[in-house]
Write a structure and sequence with these properties.
With 983 residues, the protein is of the alpha+beta class. It is 41% helix and 16% strand. 45% of the residues are buried. It comes from Streptomyces angustmyceticus.
């Protein structure tokens, strides 16, 4: 056998250069020969009986040229019951056997069904004479390697707990008194690139074609300290639930022939994978998901009758029996469990706070860490915003991708955008979170949409909503279903202990949680202990409890055992939810000279602001807090008034102030006339602009929030798609600008002039005709030019709310500058080319420069800012969120800074371009408390008007999705709040 050829063509995982022949010199009796495998730079795995009673051990490696090299070995760990041992290679591995520098860790697995396997060792029947021996008395003997290939099953040797390896037997037994397989002991048994056992013995009664192996998953029966030592030596996973289970599901069919746009797909998918990983990795760090260690979230195949036939889930051929899949495990095995489902469709059920969100986060991060080129990119989508009746699944996924990753709005070479291309090329793995948050009555439509195409997915829901949907519409085809288990005191005891302040009495290491934990263990049926145990059955509540009692607070966890204050588990949960914000917004001052890491907000103000945001989301029936939707729960008439008022101020003030220097320069009527005319023109023009822009905002928005622009302004940066918008935009500007200019002329001629403020600069009939043309053509030129300059957000851009807001703000600023140049330059030229001084005050060029500057500023603030307020998401944000809501005390002035701070404190999380509350239960709680304090329409409260028009009370609201319907509110526990079917 040529080792070089074996290395090139051998199965994945098994490397002939790391196979070892173990030669043992015993203290008493004859020596032994066995096999082994180098699992690290210094460690060799073999069978314990091969090196028992060893006086010395030599390790013989094969070399590339067919020779051998030997080094010394030393037994450092052995267990006779499991028949496993680890040898340490003497000396520095970097200068030891060949190939030491490239040693990579081996992977271990268990088996659940019969699998193919292989082992490479040195059995006795491979004994050969060495013809090149220099010994004149006769040839020496050596054992050549044997590559045993066969099958193994987990159902044989059940009592012994070993694996039965079935292989092609030797043709004859050379010595009836000895096994021909002698010397094969210690060889690693491989399957699919994983080590599943170590050859241990040959039972002669089984014949020559079978021998036994110590199986890896049995090693976890060792004592914890022994297992830890073995794991440290050979890289064995810490728990049996972390072992890969074989056989692996069939791989995804290979991609078809590479198309011309394949590099475009790879680049977009790679960028998306990087962005998604960075986003959720940072989110996990902020949530302290693994500090000091992750909670023991467990799951198993659900016992509910809510999933498809196993034959469909396994995609088994017709007539083939299909056994259930082993789907039990912990959080760190979710990727392995998902990969073990041949259909790649997995549903995760769990009650509120049971860990569904943290499971999806772990799934996405673990899968992205192991992602290879061409693999699907897992992306989390919150299902609460999907209306399956009006929007197809692909269209909704595409819109969500563009919202959270603006670079995916860039046009693809083959047509459409990059988001649609990735979906068409099957490069997205949808992680659909929160099926229960889809509006009531739409679950059936969602099921039908998901079943139209059997696409891989991970899907989460609360059990009750999913069960009702299955009962009414049938199962989710080919989807396996697992359910998260409740936490027990053993699951979170150490987590709470290590996360709270220490209490040392007499030298014992204790914590403030010890009385509670002791009661939960010793008196689990006591009323107080039972309430606490039920309340802490979910990771959400355990995390809240750790936060609430982890700082310098006078409250003690033992208070939770008091049944007078906390008579039910819901009382305990409500207390933890209520105490969470005061805990994270601790107002205690920092020490002298210290620098606070974040802004300081008073807990009560933070609660009020967050309560408004929670109520806002409740009214919009969503979990996504988007900056461009904040303030849109105000009545449309109120929003029109606010936008109109700001547009009136912007246009009126700039027009009034701009008229003063024009009249001073171009006329000799004096400063009094200039000031009076400026005031009159500012009031009238501002009133007109306010009415026009307010009306336009109401008509254009239709009550719906303005979507943010996913383009940036770049010279020569437009694409074919954006340039196609030039003519429609220009016509819109002309059609809007000419009527407005005509009305302004009429106001000046028939209102301002009769009041005695005619300055003689209207140009007569010619001016009355030219001014509307100038304004209309200027507006058309501005909008057309802006469409020409638009380019998709570049692929390297960030996806945060602040970045998207900044991009939209820059677009509006550029818009104002273009208005200034387009209107100001013609005005300046017109005035500058008039021969001679006007009014004897100033020559033409200087007069033209001043006039162009004045008219340009008026156009920028009157036209550009008015356009921004009426037609852009940023203008809506400025008018409603940066001004009106802070004025009414609903939000702070620095809104984005407050949201970022809440994100840093763990109150909010960020999902792409939007924020979400840390958990839906917290959002519902804050909304309920906010309504209880501020809603005059709650049961038992006197009916009063909505003074600020914010729409925070459950009164008729003018929204496109709800018309004038009234959303009812029920006082009670958090779960009583109606929210699209979520409780």
């Amino acid at each position: 056998m040529n080792p070089a050829d074996s290395r090139a063509s051998g199965p994945a995982g098994l490397d002939p250069g790391r196979v070892v022949q173990v030669l043992t010199t015993c203290r008493a009796g004859p020596g032994r020969r066995g096999s082994g495998y180098r699992v690290s730079g210094h460690a060799v795995l073999t069978a314990a009986h091969v090196v028992s009673d060893a006086a010395s051990v030599r390790l013989r490696f094969l070399t590339e040229d067919g020779g051998t090299t030997e080094v010394s070995g030393e037994p450092v760990w052995a267990d006779a019951a499991m028949d496993v041992a680890v040898l340490r290679i003497a000396g520095d591995a970097r200068t030891g056997p060949p190939g030491a520098a490239g040693i990579t860790p081996v992977r271990f697995a268990g088996i659940t069904r019969p699998v193919e396997c292989e082992a490479l060792g040195f059995p006795r029947f491979r004994l050969r004479p060495d013809r090149e021996s220099a010994d004149g008395d006769g040839p020496t003997w050596y054992r050549d390697s044997h590559h045993a290939r066969g099958t193994t099953t987990p159902l044989s040797y059940l009592r012994a707990g070993s694996l039965e390896i079935t292989v092609e037997p030797p043709e004859y037994d050379p010595e009836p008194g000895r096994s021909p397989w002698e010397g094969m002991s210690g060889a690693a048994v491989w399957s699919g690139g994983y080590v599943i056992g170590v050859v241990s013995e040959h039972h002669r009664f089984d014949g020559l074609g079978r021998f036994a192996a110590s199986q890896v998953k049995r090693w976890y029966r060792l004592a914890p300290d022994r297992l830890d030592a073995l794991s440290a030596l050979i890289g064995l996973p810490a728990g049996a639930d972390r072992l890969t289970q074989l056989p692996l599901p069939p791989p995804r069919p290979p991609d078809g022939p590479e198309q011309p746009d394949a590099p475009e797909v790879r680049k977009a998918a790679g960028k998306l994978a990087h962005d998604v990983y960075e986003q959720w990795h940072r989110e996990g760090q902020r949530r302290r998901a693994g500090d000091p260690f992750p909670l023991a979230v467990r799951f198993d195949c659900t016992e509910r009758n809510v999933f498809d036939h196993w034959a469909n889930i396994r995609r088994a051929p017709s007539g083939t029996p299909a056994a259930p899949l082993p789907l039990d495990g912990r959080l760190d095995r979710i990727v392995d469990v998902y990969e073990s489902v041949p259909s790649r469709r997995l549903v995760v059920l769990g009650e509120a706070g049971s860990g569904k969100t943290i499971l999806t986060l772990r799934f996405v991060l673990d899968r992205l860490r192991a992602r290879a080129a061409g693999d699907r990119v897992p992306v989390i989508f919150g299902l609460g915003s999907w209306d399956p009746v009006t929007t197809s699944l692909d269209d909704w996924l595409c819109a969500q991708l563009v919202r959270d990753h603006p670079f995916l709005a860039a046009p693809a070479d083959s047509g459409g955008d990059l988001a649609g291309l990735l979906l068409d090329e099957d490069r997205i793995l949808p992680v659909l979170d929160g099926f229960d948050e889809i509006a009531t009555g739409l679950h059936g439509a969602a099921f039908r949409a998901l079943n139209r195409t059997i696409t891989p997915l991970l899907f989460t829901s609360r059990p009750a909503e999913f069960g009702r949907a299955v009962a009414a519409n049938g199962v989710l085809r080919e989807a396996a279903v697992i359910e998260l288990a409740d936490l027990t005191v053993d699951d979170y005891a150490d987590y709470l202990h290590r996360g709270s302040r220490p209490v040392r009495d007499g030298g014992a290491d204790s914590s403030v949680w010890e009385p509670v934990l002791a009661a939960l263990r010793q008196e689990p049926r006591g009323a107080g202990a039972a309430n606490v145990a039920t309340a802490l059955a979910t990771p959400l509540m355990v995390g809240l409890a750790r936060t609430v009692y982890g700082g310098a607070t006078e409250d003690k966890p033992s208070d939770l055992l008091d049944t007078e204050d906390f008579g039910t588990p819901e009382d305990v949960q409500d207390h933890l939810l209520s105490a969470f914000l005061p805990a994270v917004y601790d107002p205690a001052p920092t020490g002298r000279g210290s620098r606070p890491r974040r802004r300081r907000y008073h807990p009560e103000r933070a609660r009020r602001w967050l309560g408004h945001l929670a109520t806002h989301l409740h009214d919009l029936d969503t979990r996504d807090l988007a900056w461009w939707e904040m303030g849109t729960t105000m009545r449309l008439a109120s929003r029109m008034r606010v936008v109109g008022l700001l547009a009136a101020l912007a246009f009126g003030v700039t027009t009034g102030i701009g008229n003063v220097p024009v009249d001073l320069v171009a006329t000799d009527l004096g400063i009094g006339f200039a000031l009076g005319r400026g005031l009159m023109v500012g009031l009238l023009h501002g009133l007109l602009a306010g009415l026009v822009f307010g009306f336009v905002y109401g008509v254009v928005s239709g009550g719906a929030p303005r979507e943010p622009s996913r383009v940036r302004i770049q010279i020569f940066g437009g694409t074919r798609q954006t340039r196609a918008k030039v003519v429609p935009r220009a016509l819109l500007g002309v059609g809007f600008g000419i009527p407005v200019a005509v009305v302004l002329v009429l106001v000046d001629r028939f209102v301002v002039a009769p009041l005695g403020f005619d300055d003689g600069l209207d140009g007569g009939l010619v001016g009355a005709l030219l001014f509307p043309l100038e304004v209309g053509l200027g507006a058309g030129l501005v909008l057309g030019l802006m469409a020409w300059l638009e380019a998709p957000v570049e692929i390297g851009s960030a996806v945060s709310a602040a970045d998207l807001l900044s991009t939209n703000r820059k677009n509006v600023v550029v818009h104002m500058l273009v208005w200034m140049l387009v209107i100001g330059i013609p005005a300046g030229l017109g005035f500058g080319l008039v021969p001679g001084p006007v009014g004897g005050l100033m020559p033409g060029p200087v007069r033209g420069l001043l006039a162009g500057l004045v008219f340009g500023i008026e156009a920028a603030f009157g036209g550009g800012l008015g356009y921004g307020l009426s037609f852009t998401a940023w203008g809506q944000w400025v008018a409603l969120v940066r001004m009106w809501l802070p004025l009414t005390g609903r939000l702070p002035w620095a809104v984005i800074a407050f949201l970022d701070d809440a994100h840093q404190r763990g109150v909010l999380r960020r999902a792409g371009a939007v924020y979400q509350f840390r958990h839906a239960r917290l959002q519902d709680h804050l909304a309920r408390v906010s309504r209880a304090h501020h809603c005059p329409h709650r049961p038992g409260a006197p009916g009063t008007a909505d003074p600020d028009g914010t729409g925070n009370c459950p009164r008729p609201q003018e929204r496109p999705d709800s018309g004038n319907t009234c959303r009812t509110h029920t006082d009670g526990p958090d779960s009583g709040t109606t929210h699209g079917g979520a409780t």
